[in-house]
Every structure is written in structure tokens, then in C-alpha cells.
Amino acid sequence: MRFVVTKSCGGSSRARVGSLLAGNPPSLLETPALLLSTKKGLPAFISPDLLATLDSPGPPLLHISPVHFLDGPSPSIISSIGGLHQMLALQSFVLVASPRDSIESLPESIGANKLGAAFETPSGRRLVKPSDYMDMISSLKADLWASLADEVPAWVSEKRNRASVDRTLRWLDDCIALDKTGGENIFGAIVGGTSVKERQRCATEVVKRNVPGFYIGGFGLGESMEERLGLLNTIMDSLPVEKPRQIFGLALPEEVLQGVAAGIDLFDSTYVYHLTLGGFALVFPLDIIESENLGVHLNNGGDATTINLRATVYRKDTSPLINNCSCYTCQNHTRAYINHLLTVHEMLAHILLEVHNTQHYLQFFGKIREAIKLDKFDLFCKKFIEGRRTHLITSLPSSDPDESPLLSR
Amino acid sequence: MKVHLEVHDIHPVLSFQVSLLDLADITEEGVTFQSPADGKPMLLTPEESIRIQNKIGADIIMALDDVVRTTITGPRMEEAMYRTLRWIDRCIAAHERPDAQNLFGIVQGGVDPILRDICVRGLVERNLPGYAIGGLAGGEDKDSFWRVVAQCTAALPADKPRYVMGVGYPLDIVVCSALGADMYDCVYPTRTARFGTALIPEGVLKLKHNAMASDERPIDSTCTCMVCKKYTRAYLHYLVTKDPMGSQLLSYHNLSYMMRLSQNLHMSIVEGRFPQFVQGFLRIQFPKGDVPKWVCNAMEVAGIDISSCCSPIH
Ligand SMILES: [Zn+2]
Ligand SMILES: [Zn+2]
Q1: Which of B37, B216, B245 faces A42 most closely, judged by CB atoms?
Q2: How far is CA A131 from CA A175, A181, A182, in A?
Q3: A61-64 and A94-97 strand pairing
Q4: For residue A218, which of A200, A242, A192 has the smallest C-alpha distance?
Q5: Chain A residues in contact with B240 (beta carbon < 8 A)
Q6: Ligand nearest to the CA of A330
Q7: Which residue of B has its CA nearest to A84?
Q8: pTM score
Q9: Interchain proximity B214–A77, CB inside 8 Å
Q10: What ipTM does the predicted assembly reach?
Q11: CATH assignment of A2-268, given 3.30.450.20, 3.20.20.105, 3.60.20.10, 3.40.1050.10?
Q12: Consecutive 10-residue runs of chain A (409 residues): their mean pLDDT?
């Protein structure tokens, strides 16, 4: 892996554009970038042939959770098949592995102990020790991977935060020692919960290991946006600027913008998965800098960024999800059809929604990079958040928290 | 066995059918069932059914019929058959686009040869663009099943397509084609995919089976579909029955299997080697020669010699 920061924002923002060279053969990707969520290696609904139709500048980056493979195929079978790229038939894609996701592998801090990290999975709580984890890492052959972390929610005690840092650092040393490729693709995990002191200690210690990149864990676990800002700044102050940073748990557009502003390079797309599952489509305009007012023309059943395709208003709506959207779904199908598919419980509804939502969020990231390059990232954030606020004020009386994944978080 | 029909240049689209709905209430006026949209009772008359299908614009549209389970006999079956005949006239009268859309009548009558005979003759009199054989694949025994198909295909005009509704398994399709049927529809390839079963020339492959966990071969090494080119049984083993992607990938393979089977069947007729096709199909499906008796009986009527596929003793 190689990483170069190609453009940094001046002033208060630490937002940056970087070039990431990863994969085999290596692909050149621009950051900030979105890692697509997967279940056992493939996206939940987008089949491999449709994955190729996604309009993105390079091959998409996929997030892979080794925990999904605890029940098989066994590491020896995966190795024998030739690793994850081969098994998934995604040879030209860049695969980034980290244990946690927000779908089938949730960190479970109560179950963790000094031996390993615990995850809540569909087959129950599972303890993953560094040696198990590294067995999987060496068989999966992901392009980049995070060390095993003890991620804790925001409400644990200072003592627990301290323990999480101690364990995570020890496991990082174990992972480095057990890595057969000499640690060249490892992202060192940084934890510490909501303790500024522990976050700083962890970051400083991880930096000492001279890892090529960083995985920032323990976010999106109950901390407030304000709390997060201080923690992210503390961590970033301790990290060298020239190395890439991946985060997990900052999913909503506002959270992504906060993370980008703090200097994060790689994000997860769990948000897209949850929207898709709920029957929502992303519809916010992407020409954020050019537009006069983002919120105005979004008077439609969801919130300012999404629409709820289950709503009866779409029953006879023969327009695509977004006019002029180049995705497979918008090129071929209408809102009315997706509404119908949801009504009759057809999986195709989710396939079509995941295609559109994924492409839309990928393009949102494209716009973020563009804004940074134009030195307009602050304006971009301001206009995006203003648009949302305008909409929320005008539509507040009817807003139902269950209807809006943005508000219910 | 029939030589191919020139029906359409493009893929024809078929319309809906109200089939064996458990909650349906059937009167002379029409079928009352629960709307899938809001659960409210909805009356579907023959006229309304045709009106909707005219709007949908399918190339082939189906008459509304009174379907009862084939296992039912007696006055209810007789009533359903006669009602189907009365309804076809209402469907024909309501059909506003006969030049653009082909209305198929549906032969009913359960497994009673007399009722089937009355129904098929009644429909042929109406000179429809095509005919469906309905009410099958509903739990009747296989010998009754193929005999109904054979009786209907023999009575239907040779120059019109014959569509066996709700069929079927690969073996059923091969047998019905030998008996002169042309078209089929079935949820089997996709439904069985959701249960983790793949269709292969030898029959079926249960991907949930423990042996699949370490099997690095594709589902079917002779299959050219995207899934067989890309994925191992070992990987699919962990996806099927649990993840939507497992259902998708297996459905993809199963549908490509069925399409290839139909294509091969079609070409064998065009090239005048259909008997050899049937023999080859049966030999792979029943390597021990234990071809079911009903298949042997049906093939005898179809005039296809399959003795080479059957073991001498069984
Ligand atoms: Zn779209
Ligand atoms: Zn295949």
C-alpha cells in the first residue's frame, strides 16, 4: 500500500484529499472514500454483475469483516481457493478488513476479556483472539486490514477505557508479530472510548509501532457529536499527516462531513445498508456548492436527504428515484415500481435501492473530494447542513422519528 | 412432439393468473380475494381481469378461470369446468385489443377425462390464439397428470401454442414437451434456490449439505453461467438459505439451467433428434435405470423409445 496526501484544506479544517495505491494489481483510489458494506464478502443485495455497473472513479473499495467467516468457509479452504479476492470473484477490487460492522458483527465490550475481543453475531456472541484473527487475516489476504480492537461504548468507566487501550495495544503487537507479510498492510487500531487521555495515549503508542495506517475504533457507540469532535481532534493531533486513517461508525452525511473535517480518509457505508433495508432512497442534490438552497425542493415523505419508498405518495409516481441519476435503477425503473416491490415483499426492491443508494453515496464522496480540491469544503459543509436545517424546520410537525433514520440515531 | 411455432420475434410477456388462492371466494360473478396491497376484499370479474391485462399490455393474456384443486372430484369440479367455459365468453367479449394481445383460454376439469374433453372442445370452438392446460401440479398423482396433458394436447389444434400452467420440474417439462406441450411457467427454480437447492443435469445438488463446506468445484462444471464461472460450492454453502445473496446467486444459476434445458430441448426437435435428447436426459437423471413408471408410460404414448434408459428389472 502507498498513500500520499495530495491536497490539504487550510484554516480550521483538516480535510484532505489523498491518493491510495492498493490492491493487486494496484489500483489508484482517491480519498476521502467510502468502503461498501458486505455480508460474508459480497454486498448484501448488489450481485457481482451489477456491482460492475456502479459509476465510481476507480474500482469500489469493499469493507470485509473477518468475523463473518467464523462459521466458515474455514481459513484453510479460503487459502486453498486463493484468498478472498478469488473466492468472491472480485479480483480487481480493493478489500479492507476490520472485524466490526454494524450489521452482523457488533462489538460487545462486556464479552471482551484480556484474551480477545467479543462480537455479537447472528450465531451468538463470539470471542475472537488475536491468533484466530490472524489465521483469518492470512487466509483472506485482504489488501488492507485493521488490528484487533477492544471497542467500548461511550458510557463505560475510565478504568474500562484504560483496559481497552492496554488490550488493543497488546493485540496490535500480537497482530504485527503474527503477520506473515511483515506488517505492510496493517492499520493500527486506536481506541479509548470517550476518554481524551486514553485516546491520546493509545494514538501515541500506536504511532510508535510505525504502522502504515490507522483504524480509529470506538466511534458511533453512543458519544455525542460534540464529544466526538474533541476526541477526533485529540487523536488527529497525535497522528502523522502522511498516513491514511480509517474510521468505523461515522455513517450519516453529517457525521461523514465531521469526520472528513477532522482528517479521516476512509468511511464505512453501513448507513446505505440500513437505508436500503428500511425502503429509503437517498435523494439529496449533489450539486451542493452550486445550489441556492438545498432543502427547498425536497418536500417528500422522508427527510431532507431521503425519501421513504413505502409511502403511498409513490404508488403512482412514474419518475425515477432521481431524475438524471445514471445508476442502473434510475435508468430502468420508477418510484412506483419500487413502491410496488416493497408492498409485495420482493427482494428486488432492496437490490434496486442498494444500487441507487450506493452510487449516490459514492458520488457524495466524489463531491466532498471536489470541494476540498477547490478549497470550498467549509462552504460545502455549511450549505449541506443549512439545507437540512431549513427542511427540518419547515417539516417538523409531521416528522416521525421512526420514519427517519437520520433523526432516530 | 411438435415442430416449433413462430409465435413472437421478441420475448413474449405473459400476464397474471389467479391460481388456487386459499382465501379466494368464487361465485358466478367472479373471484373475491384479499388485495395484496391493503388486505381488503377485492372482486375480480372476467371483465375486470381482461381490462387490467389490456392495460398491462402483456403479449399473452390469460382468461379468468375457476380453479379448484385437482384432488377435488364431483359436482364442484364440474361446476368449475362449466363456469370456466362461461367465463371465457365474458373474457372474449371484454377483450379490447385482440389484434395486439393474445388471449389464451384455460382447459379445466381436474383429472376427469370427460370434463377435460368437454372443456377442451368448448375452448377450441372459440378459436383462441392459444390454449393453456390449467389446474395441474396441484397434488394429483403423476400418472393422472401426464394423462391429462396427453389428452389435452391431442385435442388441441396443432398450429396453436399449448401452455401447461404451473409446470414444472425439469423432468415434467421434458415429458410434457414429448406429449406436445410448448410453454411452461414455474416458481420451482427460484423457490428451490431459496431453500439452497441447485438444479444440475444429474438432478439436484443440496448446497446446505456438509460435504459442500469444503467443495471447491462450481455448482455444475458443465454450466457456463456467471455463478458457475465465479463461485465455489464451498462459498455458496455459507450463503444459501441465510443471505439474500445466496438466494440471488442460486436463482441465477437455476434459471440459466432451465433456459439452457429449454434451448437444448428446442434445438433437438429442430434438428430431428428429440428422442436422443430425452434418452440422454433420462440417462443422466437416472443412472441406475430407475426411470419412474409414469415417465415410461408417458413416453410410450409419446412414441419415444426409452427402453435403453431403463434397467431390465424394476
Ligand atoms: Zn439512481
Ligand atoms: Zn451455473
Answers
A1: B245
A2: 8, 15, 16
A3: parallel
A4: A192
A5: none
A6: 1
A7: B235
A8: 0.92
A9: yes
A10: 0.92
A11: 3.20.20.105
A12: 92 91 92 96 95 83 95 94 97 95 88 95 94 96 97 96 98 96 94 96 98 96 93 96 96 95 96 96 89 52 78 96 95 97 95 97 96 94 83 52 35
